[in-house]
Amino acid sequence: MAAKFLSPTKPTSPLISSPLSFNSSPSLPPLFFNPTEKTLCSRKASSVSTNAKKKNPWLDPFDFGDDPDMEYGEFYSEGKQEEDPRPPEDPNNPYGFLKFPSGYNVEVASLGLKIRGDVRRCCCVISGGVYENLLFFPAIQLIKDRYPGVQVDVVASPRGKQTYELNKNVRWADAYDPDDDFPEPAEYTDMLGVLKGRYYDMVLSTRLAGLGHAAFLFMTTARDRVSYVYPNVNAAGAGLMLSETFTPPSLNLSEGGYNMYHQMLDWLGRPGRKVPRHPVPPLKVSISRKLKEYVEAKYTKAGAEKGKYVVVHGIETDSVASMQSRGDTDSLLPVHVWAEIANAIRGPKPVFVIPHEKVREDVVEIIGEDTSIVFITTPGQLAALINDSIGVICTNTAAVHLANARDKPSIALFSSEEKARLFVPNAEEKKCTIISSKTGKLIDIDVEAVKDAIKNFEGSLVLA
Fold first, then answer.
1. What CA–CA distances, in Å, run from 280 to 225, 246, 269, 323, 326?
2. DSSP letters along 103-120, please?
3. Residue among 192, 179, 268 nearest 226 (CA)
4. What is the DSSP letter of 277?
């Protein structure tokens, strides 16, 4: 019956009369093949020649990055984003103005939000404590420079959240430990609801993601989900829920030192669509006047004067307020070693920072009753104390980076030269004198070398 409806001038194709066979035709590639085979070499060559990074292979194995021959001529697809054109709220209106959830009123959203990839709201999930959150400050500044008008929020551990009183670029900082593998179900779902209700355009995470953490980021419903992943089989499946992934060389991201976030920073500052590559800004912190006045009352009570004391930080303790890095656990010295170092200080008064009150008795017993001791637990108070000092003597704690951020000279004690180069690169430019142990253990550090450095340190302060 079907045959009589066929036109005699258009015979049927021989491909229809015989069943399809992938093996019978050598010109057809197999249904499933390895992307590294010869069939894709030409496309790979064009992609590599333009330095275009291949996108997430979990999402599309045939995506080889941006087309180098693509021309973007639209006004909405080139350059940086503009400030949010949302009108200000009416103070005379008791109901406010434009009080609708972000993301619902699509009429006021710019066309470039989707075409150009604008980021109006960004959330950063930071793993680690004070040290790791402090080193993420340049990334936050880079986001603000790359996306004008962006609102940056942070999710960090309770200790890490305290760091953001020093960062004026952060709108909200929420306390939630992303490193907890078994969080409370109520806290987990509550944080998901909070993040989902803020309608983020991009979520960044510095925790090594497996399938569980990737699912957490996926459920925030952010458009771009960027995270580090495990460098082993634990990363299997995480790429399906992430837009961009970074694989660190080890399981401990903090072992990368000062440049531990270099992969994410390289991606955030990437050039594209007539936007040049953004350089990584230096580490800077801002201190409020209220915080300065509070800390000034503290060190004045301890017997120190503004601009006439040296901060000593890095006393050995089991307190979580020690502010040391996860990548360098050997970064604290006992009190008796600090006593030898403090005896070599002439002129400025040494002020010992203790992270817990139980350490005060040990310091008074070993160093003396007239010792200036300041009890400080938050990074903001430590930054204010360093800001009013003439310099810092410390181990590998957050104090060395806070001194650099406030442009104060410092002497940093490390367990090895490798650690020193890793955590304080370009030390001379940062007015930092490095003293490292020759045995690889901080307890074996040469105290005489530290005393000689203190003499040069005091001389430079006089010249300054």
1. 21, 18, 8, 24, 23
2. TT-GGGS-THHHHT---S
3. 268
4. P
pLDDT in tens, 414-446: 999 999 999 999 998 888 999 999 999 999 999
- Greatest alpha-carbon span in the chain: 112
* Range in 1-5, 180-184, 254-258, 323-327 the model is least confident about: 1-5
Q: Which pair of tokens denotes residue 402?
A: 């806070």
pLDDT in tens, 65-76: 666 676 655 555
Cβ atoms within 10 Å, residue 179: 15
The torsion angle over the Cα atoms of residues 12, 15, 19 and 22, rounded to 10 degrees, is -170
Distances (CA, A) of 450 to 98, 311, 368, 435: 61, 15, 21, 7
Euclidean distance between CA atoms 238 and 230, whole angstroms? 9
Strand order in the sheet with 202-209: 170-175, 151-156, 121-125, 202-209, 224-229, 244-246
Sign of the dihedral through C-alpha 393, 394, 398, 404: positive
- Among 92, 91, 176, 80, CA closest to 120: 80
**pLDDT of 22 higher than 50:** no
SS3 313: strand
**d(C-alpha 402, C-alpha 383), whole Å:** 6
